[in-house]
Amino acid sequence: MSGKSTSSVKDPLWKLEAFVPPGAVDDFEDALSTCAVAVSRFEDAGGDTDNWRVEALFDVAPNPCRFDDLLQNLTRELRFDSTPVVVTEVPDQDWVGQSLEGLAPVRAGRYFIGGRHNAAAAPAHAISVLIEAGQAFGTGHHETTHGCLLALVRIGRLVGRPRRILDLGCGTGVLAIAAAKTWQRPVVASDIDPIATRITQEN
Predict the structure, then answer these.
(1) Domain range list for the chain
(2) CB of 56 within 8 A of CB of 39?
(3) CB atoms closer than 10 angstroms to residue 111
(4) What is the pLDDT of residues 3-49, one digit of tens each?
(5) Cα(90)–Cα(46) distance, rounded to whole angstroms?
(6) Dist CA 72 CA 84 (whole Å)
(7) Which helix (H) or strand (E) holds 10?
(8) Between the CA of residue 74 and those of 65, 80, 127, what are the distances in Å?
(9) Cα 127 from Cα 178, distance rounded (Å)
């Protein structure tokens, strides 16, 4: 399998959290939207109040004092005792990987697709393709990947063992690995995403 990979450090994100009375939520959210990359509101803020919890994500650390003053100005006539706006740095996590770890294994014809933690569940006669959760597309759950796995079986029946195999847009490498295990042939796996080629090589 071929492909170059590069490592990069993600830019940090900061989360701003504030508790806002219903009468000021829209204006506070609008003000945040002018400089935040994303803003969310949650009706159940906890406690005995009707306040909403407003969260905003920033790619540059915001000044909490600026938004404390803004919140106080917006709520001055609402008899609201505002709590300080809280700003915290968001830890760098592989959210995609965490979500994929909970996926159940997939059966597609002769193939068993799962993580290494599912390896023991693979039937003895199946072709096991163990894909670790990562930041690349291809776990066997999507209809396109599932259909391509079934097509591999059909190709083998119709045309026999192929001489050259290319997986263009390999993602996690699930199809390249399945083809290599099926026909015992070298496979060229390529992707424009360096993360995908790295994950394919690791898998």
Answers:
(1) 13-90, 97-202
(2) yes
(3) 24
(4) 443 444 457 888 999 888 888 888 888 888 888 889 999 886 556 66
(5) 22
(6) 10
(7) none
(8) 14, 10, 62
(9) 8
Q: How far apart are CA 32 and CA 42, in angstroms?
A: 15
Nearest-CA neighbor of 12 among 55, 56, 58, 63? 58
Which residues, in sequence order, are CB contacts of 88 under 8 Å at separation 6+? 14, 15, 17
Query: What is 13-90's CATH number?
Result: 3.30.70.260
The closest of 2, 11, 70, 1 to 37, measured between CA atoms, is 11
The DSSP symbol for 70 reads: H
Its pTM stands at: 0.53
Domain covering 97-202 in this structure, CATH number: 3.40.50.150
Residue 111 — very low, low, confident or very high, per pLDDT cuts 50/70/90?
very high
Q: Is 17 exposed, middle or buried (0-12, 13-18, 19+ CB in 10 A)?
A: middle
Cα separation of 165 and 180, whole Å? 8
Distances (CA, A) of 38 to 14, 16, 64: 11, 10, 17
Token code pair at residue 64: 């909490």
Judge whether 13-90 and 97-202 match in fold: no
Q: Which two tokens stand for residue 112?
A: 């068993």
* Residue 157 structure tokens: 């029946």
CA dihedral 97, 100, 101, 103 (to 10 degrees): 180
Q: pLDDT tens-digit profile of 150-173?
A: 998 888 888 888 889 999 999 889
